[in-house]
Amino acid sequence: MLECRNLWKIYGKIVAVRDVSLEVREGDIKLIFGPSGSGKSTLARCLAMLTTPTKGDVFLKGECLTKPGVDLNKARARVGFVFQHIWLFHHLTALRNVELGPRRSLGLPKEEARERAMQALKEVRMEEWAKHYPAQLSGGQQQRVGIARALAMHPEIIILDEPTSALDPELIGEVIDTLRDLAKKGTTMLVISHEMPFAREVADEMLFFDEGTIIERGPPERFFTRPSSERARRFMARLIKRTRRE
Q: 9: which strand partners?
């Protein structure tokens, strides 16, 4: 479904992403975790072609998105992206926020775009709030609208960049429940998150990311019981301790 080979992103003297190769198959749920500032968000943006990689290639269903002449607007429309910070238009209702992409990017007629938007809101259990404005919604509800906005584009994969990090602890659960529902439906997802209970329950593979590269990858149970690298062991110990405290 989505693949990158030898991906680099360099800003001047700063190497944000260093020689990363990974593959996400249809129906996979991959979870990337690691320290703040390690380059996870930059990697996510490169995979969605929101940021142009310095070197390396990105493939979506076998099509190389990094070669010259590719229509990046069409390519980006095939990858749903949920941002860490909730970027909703505050002057638009939830429904209009969600229908905007299908209308503007896909050129769908208003009624068809609205039907898609309502269906996407139903998938995240937000249809009852369709006519509410962002200021009338909780942070968790706003993020669920953000997920619906990605779903309404009928993407081939959804990339979620720390979708709960901007939320208060009591609001995280409703977003995680939404991701669980999507997982049960077989939605292909690449998730950047430190929500370890969700990772252990849902992820097919976890990837520990540090200093711009993948340090270790494997099934969730291995990270919870016997990480191979010392860096992953220390980081997992801190995450598990935090989870127990919460």
A: 17
